[in-house]
Amino acid sequence: MIERIIDKRKHDLGGGFEVGRVLPFHARRTVGPYIFFDHMGPVDLAPGIPRELDVRPHPHIGLSTVTYLYDGAMTHRDSLGFHQEIRPGEVNWMIAGKGITHSERFEYARANGAHMHGIQAWVALPEAAEETDPAFFHHEGGDLPTWEENGIRGRLIAGAAEGMKSAVKTHSPQFYMHWDMAAGSQRILPAEYTERAVYIATGSAEIGGQKLHAGQMAVLQPGGDVAIRAEEAATVMVLGGEPIGERFLFWNFVSSSRDRIEQAKEDWRQQRMKLPDGDDLEFTPLPEPKR
């Protein structure tokens, strides 16, 4: 039932803060509309950490960003004027559409210290919505359906699955779930969508008779229910949806059009995109080709 296993690769976001990058992968660019998947931490940040570890203001087009934490806290600011702290089990969902800028800073950790652990994902917008107006939504509590069964606690972060629907605004058929699995527990992932993947954030699990460890994503073959069994206590993310079509990706820009990517690069290079309210004194420069 497994089409491919992808191991996370170390990637420095700048300033020394490293993440484990899973998607995009050279042999597998997307899973449904999910075009980007970074595993942050787990890492302990001491009080007084330097600002260089923060994710400075930067732009996006053509996608929605999804921030989801297991531990710690982050502070979001964007060019629409939103200022939102995110904590474990909550969702920051930012629709970039025709263009937005934002920053994500470790203000809580800088003041108090923190154990940081979470997932940053991007969802490519369908062509008809690529130039939609940007928007930001914060969700918690009843917006995100939760359940408990046979040693498993689950949360539907986005989309629809198994008769449940998240309040998060999505633009194409998809699902994104978080399962906390006790050792020995098992759950079936039904074949509701064409493309599906399972990511092991902590612990280990057996999928279709194959054991996966923390930091590995199993991209599943289309069709057929799949049994996922926790070999030990495990944190598991399951995600996918219907194929979104070919997308071009450069830095923080996603589009079905190469020309649109070039336009976004020039807009940022010429500083034509408004910086976040309350965080406009610095920004991340456009990466330029190495000579």
From TrEMBL:
Region (Disordered): 265-291
InterPro entries named in the record: Pirin (IPR012093), Pirin_C_dom (IPR008778), Pirin_N_dom (IPR003829), RmlC-like_jellyroll (IPR014710), RmlC_Cupin_sf (IPR011051)
Occurrences of domain Pirin N-terminal (ranges): 17-123
SUPFAM superfamilies named among the record's database cross-references: RmlC-like cupins (SSF51182)
Sequence ranges of Basic and acidic residues compositional bias: 265-277
Chain segments annotated as transmembrane: none
Residue span(s) of domain Pirin C-terminal: 176-273
Coiled coil: none
CDD domains documented for this protein: cupin_pirin_C (cd02247), cupin_pirin_N (cd02909)
PANTHER family linked: PIRIN, PIRIN-RELATED
Family to which the UniProt record says this protein belongs: Belongs to the pirin family.
Protein name per UniProt: Pirin family protein
Organism listed in the record: Tsuneonella flava
